[in-house]
Automatic annotation (TrEMBL):
Residues 1015-1024 have a biased composition (Basic and acidic residues). PANTHER family: 26S PROTEASOME NON-ATPASE REGULATORY SUBUNIT, 26S PROTEASOME NON-ATPASE REGULATORY SUBUNIT 1. SUPFAM superfamilies: ARM repeat. Belongs to the proteasome subunit S1 family. Pfam families: HEAT_2, PC_rep, RPN2_C, RPN2_N. The lineage of its organism: Eukaryota, Discoba, Euglenozoa, Kinetoplastea, Metakinetoplastina. GO terms for biological process: proteasome-mediated ubiquitin-dependent protein catabolic process; regulation of protein catabolic process. This is Proteasome regulatory non-ATPase subunit 2, putative. Residues 811-945, 951-1001 form the 26S proteasome regulatory subunit RPN2 C-terminal domain. Residues 16-361 form the 26S proteasome non-ATPase regulatory subunit 1/RPN2 N-terminal domain. One of its GO terms (cellular component) is nucleus. GO terms for molecular function: enzyme regulator activity. Keywords: Proteasome, Repeat.
């Protein structure tokens, strides 16, 4: 076979390729060989002439009588001609047909372009499960949509494998390993990814690329099944060949996979391994922090089974004990009962919630004057604003257990009637969120006692409140309350109010438990009760079966929702429930969503919208976003369109900028419901981030002509700006002023005022120590998503507003030692404290405003004229004394003229004004030794003494501050927090957030317990009346 040298010879020796093209019509193979070789040399110069005979060259490529090398050479020429003609699809096809003559190692514009197109085409074929091509790939590249789903060309697969092997061989130093990982993930080549990662681990003993791949899988990979396959590969590498095992990354990987068995094995091994117990405690705390209830329950069961395996019971025979002892010695596991109890307590959330309650109580920074001003500014006869004020107080004190405002205003609170009383009573549950040990005692006076009392709304609200208290805790810690509420559901089934409240309470307390017995009890209420009770029971089902995807549950609810004469409230409750059952199930939920969206009833179609939003929440799936945008534009129901836009916020809460980009064009929509949906979508996606672009969009919508759009904009601004400081985001101060003004304005419409009152409460959520979180470390917080989702439906039912408390999380650092005690520990916040400071209190603002007004005091014209007359009179008196002194002779011993004037002046001044408290001295001046301590410099505008120190000048703000354990640390502050300054303790995990275990690197000493947090009574903070202004009695 003759080797072709692919060189581009200058065409200086010939002026046309027509002669060479004429040789292609010969039949002699030697002449054809010469002609093809010559054409290949001049194709880059005479491609325009060769293109006229491209059909002839294609015939030569397909001619079976020619040798393989000549046919491949003809294909290479055709590829270059099509390349110059910008026909890249044809060029790729003939380049692949050229076989080895297409040299991938020879760099040129032609080679690079074809390789790029080949890679993109290969990726498009491999990723054919996604209907949308990857970014930057034109559909014509693949020859149309049919080409994407067609069988993969084996030559393309061979080319990609060759390139991958070449890249790996060239990257011995592991410099370009990230690019290789990216190529393998885009091409869906798990075999190649496995090889690349194992090679990198063998060369470096580092988990850096595992972390990088983990990030890619969770951020960029939208296909649910493929993402799981990547994580499955990673989970097997975290403990294989690494110098140091990264247990935190392994735990995150296992949580995404839902592998409870292996997670339990890892935690159990660390718990009973010498020196690793504290690491097991930290993993347990993290699991409660960002995993779902089903996973926590499964891990708990697996741990209990492992304990039974390694710990012999009292009835175990001697031979069985010997066998267990052999297993324990072989695995290095020594059972510690006390450590097991501590681990389970951390895993169930008892440790975390108890610490958060105590922290929020002791460090509450709520300004009680804000809610008092709201109470004074609203019309007491308006039940909507009255109810909103009670809800706002609950948000301000969420989780703090501080109920002073309710206790101090019992008469005013008693004005709430019927369902407003239901909501008011349930707010007690928000105040005591997580305070499970005292839940029954706190609500004892409101709960029914044996029979339905005359206040069923209050009793039902108390049951709802019980659920809100137990919402943050696992179902294992709420078993007593769950049983109590189930009994109440059976005993008081005739009361629609109690059925509604108990159903919501059960759903919150047993969220994610997947108990089919509870489902049966609640579904009986859905089918046998009226609309209000049925809606609550349906929502309770959705929360209990959260994320299960249970086919029987879905089929039962779907059939009931599609009944011909079904009530609107019941359908809406069932629609929300079906969406919650499919939370996080992604593609598995699409058949149900398609069926619901095809229904004629708008409330059933609303369920399809909810299902897409919940199934793909946090994934930013482009197909789901495209589907929701299409519904928002095409559907005829305003409710469906509004919620379709709103669901985009749930899809993109891990990437707020994407939500902003997708919805900014809808801000100017003619439809007010779509504008409201945009406001809520942006707020949900950017909640707690203080995103400037999101604030800008919502700032425009707050001045909308439609009242409910303004309402949504104000609530959205509060969700985005919660815990933002005035220095970091100047709009915060202006927003507070606008909210206060609109609440006090009697002419403001009720709808907008309702939104302003809720916004005021959300801005100061949790005593100004909390923020809104829907994910942590890119782990979707299922309960937070549920809370925000149900809160977004307050449009139909005001009690749903309280559900947002599930998304309110403390932002703090609480360090614990291995005994779950809080030691003395300090760390540094490497930024100016004003960047994260709380806003000034109402009283402080008043004092500053008063001081400013006094400095700018206006002098009336009458007062000024009066002072001028007094001065003229004084000068006239002095002048008369001087004239008398000049005309009479001076007597012996009599005072001279100057003395007389001075005496008269002194007498006059003494009569009119008291002695001055200070005097101004001119340089040079007589200053006694006793006078020096009270001399003050700095009043001169030009000069200062050389060693002068201006005490009045404000000292420059510190660039950092030292924080003590436990400390308030905002989300914006965490990136600048630095640990390592403490001589004794170090945080166990790299990104210390929330409750963290501290490793004692020195040993010895005592620790401060959690009870020592409680040092002050929050009800007495700055709650005194201001000192009255000075006045004179007439």
């Amino acid at each position: 076979m003759t080797t072709v040298v692919a060189t581009n010879t200058r065409a200086g020796s010939i002026s046309s390729a027509k002669g060479i093209l004429a040789l292609l019509r010969e039949t002699d193979s030697a002449i054809l060989r010469f002609a093809l070789h010559r054409l290949h040399q001049v194709v880059d110069s005479f491609w325009f002439e060769i293109s006229s005979d491209i059909a002839l060259i294609e015939e030569l490529h397909e001619c079976s009588s020619l040798t393989e090398d000549l046919r491949q050479l003809a294909a290479l020429i055709a590829a270059k001609v099509y390349f110059h003609l910008n026909e890249y699809s044809e060029s790729v096809s003939f380049a692949l047909a050229a076989g080895p003559l297409f040299d991938v190692n020879k760099r040129s514009l032609f080679t690079d372009t074809i390789l790029s197109r080949c890679i993109d085409l290969y990726v498009a074929h491999r990723d054919g499960s996604n209907s949308l091509l990857p970014g930057g790939i034109e559909q014509t590249l693949a020859g149309g949509a049919a080409a994407v789903t067609a069988a993969l060309d084996p030559r393309l697969d061979t080319l990609f494998s060759t390139l991958a092997e070449k890249w790996q061989a060239e990257d011995e130093s592991q410099i370009n390993v990230k690019e290789l990982i990216g190529f393998s993930v885009r091409a869906c080549r798990l075999d190649l990814l496995d090889v690349i990662l194992r090679k990198h681990i063998a060369a470096t003993n580092s988990a850096e690329m595992l972390t990088f791949t983990f990030h890619i899988a969770n951020v960029l990979v939208t296909n649910y099944q493929f993402r799981r396959e990547i994580l499955q590969i990673l989970s097997g590498m975290y403990t294989d060949g690494l110098q140091t095992v990264d247990y935190f990354s392994l735990a995150q990987c296992l949580v995404f996979l839902g592998d409870a068995t292996r997670m339990a094995e890892v935690v159990h091994t660390l718990l009973h391994k010498k020196g690793e117990r504290i690491l097991a405690f930290q993993l347990a705390l993290d699991l409660f922090d960002f995993s779902n209830q089903e996973f926590i329950g499964s891990v708990t069961k697996e741990l209990q089974q492992l304990d039974q395996l390694y710990a012999p019971s009292s009835s175990t025979s001697q031979s069985e004990e010997s066998a267990v002892a052999a297993v324990s010695s072989a695995t290095g596991v020594v059972i510690d009962t006390e450590a097991n109890a501590q681990l389970l307590s951390a895993l169930r959330g008892e440790v975390t919630t108890s610490l958060y309650v105590k922290f929020l109580y002791a460090r509450s920074l709520t300004d009680v004057h804000i809610v008092n001003n709201i109470k004074k500014g609203i019309d007491p006869r308006n039940s909507i604003t009255h109810n909103a004020t009670i809800i706002a107080n609950a948000f301000m004190n969420c989780g703090t257990t501080i109920d002073g405002f309710l206790r101090d205003n019992m008469d005013w609170l008693a004005r709430a009637q019927q369902w407003a009383k239901f909501t008011a009573t349930a707010t007690v549950g928000v105040l005591h969120k997580g305070h499970t040990s005292e839940a029954m005692n706190v609500l004892k006076t409101f709960l029914p006692d044996g029979s339905v009392g005359p206040l069923p709304f209050q009793e039902a609200g108390a049951m709802y409140g019980l659920g809100l208290i137990h919402g943050p805790v696992g179902a294992a810690s709420s078993s007593t309350v769950i049983e109590y509420l189930r009994n109440a559901l059976r005993q008081y089934s005739s009361s629609e109010q109690i059925v509604h409240g108990a159903s919501l309470g059960i759903g919150l307390a047993a969220m994610g438990q997947h108990d089919e017995d509870i489902f049966d009890a609640l579904f009986t209420c859905v089918s046998g009760c009226d609309a209000v009770a049925g809606e609550g029971a349906a929502l309770g089902i959705g929360m209990v079966m959260l994320g299960s995807g249970n086919a029987r549950v879905i089929e039962s609810m779907k059939r009931h929702a599609m009944e011909f004469d079904q009530k609107e409230k019941t359908i809406r409750g069932l629609s929300m429930a079906m969406a919650l059952v499919h939370l996080g199930r992604e593609d598995d939920a699409l058949p149900l969503a398609d069926e619901l969206l095809a229904h004629a009833d708008p409330w059933v179609r609303l369920g399809g919208v909810f299902t897409i939003g919940m199934a793909f929440s946090g994934t930013a799936n482009p197909r789901a976003i495209e589907r929701l945008l299409a519904i928002a534009v095409r559907d005829v129901s305003d409710d469906v369109r509004r919620n379709a836009v709103m669901m985009i916020g749930f899809l993109t809460f891990k990437d707020p900028q994407l939500c902003i980009d997708m919805t900014k064009v809808l801000v100017d929509s003619y439809n007010a419901h779509i504008r409201y949906g945009v406001a809520m979508a942006v707020a949900i996606a950017a909640s707690g981030t203080a995103n400037a672009t999101a604030v800008e969009m919502l700032w425009i919508l707050k001045d909308d002509l439609v009242d409910f759009v303004r309402q949504g904009a104000f609530i959205g601004l509060s969700l985005v700006l919660v815990q933002a400081s005035e220095k970091a985001q100047p709009k915060v101060k202006e927003l507070r002023q606008i909210l206060a003004k609109k609440i006090a304005d009697r002419r403001e419409d009720t709808c907008t005022k309702f939104g302003c009152i809720l916004a005021t409460g959300l801005l100061d959520a949790g005593g100004r120590n909390c923020t809104i979180l829907l994910h942590k470390q890119r782990h979707r917080l299922a309960k937070s998503v549920v809370g925000m989702f149900v809160f977004s439906q307050y449009w139909y039912w005001f009690p749903y507003t309280l559900m947002v408390s599930l998304a309110i999380h403390p932002t703090c650092f609480i360090g614990l030692n291995d005994k779950f005690e809080m030691p003395k520990y300090s760390f540094v916040s490497d930024a100016a404290p004003s960047n994260f400071a709380i806003p000034k209190s109402v009283q402080q603002e008043k004092k500053e405003a008063k001081a400013s007004a006094q400095q700018k005091k206006v002098i009336l014209s009458t007062t000024k004229k009066e002072e001028e007359n007094r001065e003229k009179k004084k000068r006239g008196t002095l002048l008369g004394i001087a004239e008398d002194s000049k005309t009479s002779p001076t007597a012996a011993g009599a005072p001279d003229l100057d003395a007389a004037i001075a005496a008269a002046a002194g007498k006059d001044e003494a009569a009119e004004a008291p002695e001055a408290t200070s005097e101004t001295l001119e340089n040079p001046a007589r200053v006694t030794m006793a006078q020096f301590p009270v001399v003050k410099h700095g009043s001169d505008a030009r000069y200062r003494p050389f060693f002068f120190k201006d005490e009045a000048a404000e000292a420059p703000e510190a660039t950092s501050e030292i924080l003590e354990n436990p400390a308030r640390v905002t989300m914006a502050q965490f990136p600048v927090v630095k640990h390592g300054s403490d001589a004794r303790y170090r945080p166990l995990k790299p990104n210390a957030f929330g409750v963290c275990m501290l490793q004692d690197v020195s040993g010895g000493g005592s620790a401060t317990t959690a009870e020592d947090l409680i040092k002050i009574d929050p009800n007495n903070k700055d709650d005194t009346a201001p000192v009255p202004e000075a006045f004179s009695y007439p």
